[in-house]
Amino acid sequence: MKLILESVCFSYGEKQILHNTNLTLAAGDKIALMGASGTGKTTLLRLMAGLNLPDSGTVQGIPAQGVSMVFQENRLLPHLTALDNLALVAPYKSAAELTALLAEVGLAGEGNSYPKALSGGMKRRVAIARAIALGSPLVLLDEPFSGLDEASRRQTAEFLLQHTTQSIVVAVTHDPQEAQLLGAQIVTLDSLRK
pTM to 2 decimals? Predict the structure, then answer.
């Protein structure tokens, strides 16, 4: 598994967000994208996921089976339970397997809860468990620990590390400590422009 971005440029209208951006990642690589707000970190994740196409340049290696992605918003379906939100992306996994994933992120007993009954931090952990349930070799995380207290942050980071040993992991964060929790190399967008 390799993800290769070559000479990627992307604009929103007249505003150029990414220019001549280059990055090569292989299975097991973990990076934390850092930089000021509005510099294109989320846009870069969207390009890696195939949700946006570059104006020029190429993105190669997006897995055919899909990408495990945690957006800035949790994007849980409100009419589905926590367990059903996971089953939506992993219908081939048993309820017991998915329940175990929820337990690993500290949500034992919450499988039948609907999002409206969960706190912000609980919703975040459901979104992270859902991304891992998909099982993609490419895991993209946009501010994955927002809304989590210190203990939940550590537990969730351990969960991610355990389930992504052979995956490419790209996390957008503003906090070097979060990069450290994920064992990720800090990369700035400026360093990707060649």
Answer: 0.95
CA 47, 148, 135, 30 dihedral sign is positive
Please state, as a whole number, how many other Cβ atoms lie within 10 Å of the Cβ of residue 139. Answer: 24
The fourth-level CATH superfamily of domain 1-67+138-194 is P-loop containing nucleotide triphosphate hydrolases (3.40.50.300)
Q: Which pLDDT tens digit goes with each residue over 28-62?
A: 999 999 988 888 999 999 999 999 999 999 999 99
pLDDT tens, position by position, 99-142: 999 999 999 999 999 999 999 999 999 999 999 999 999 999 99
Alpha-carbon dihedral 113, 116, 118, 120, rounded to 10 degrees: 150
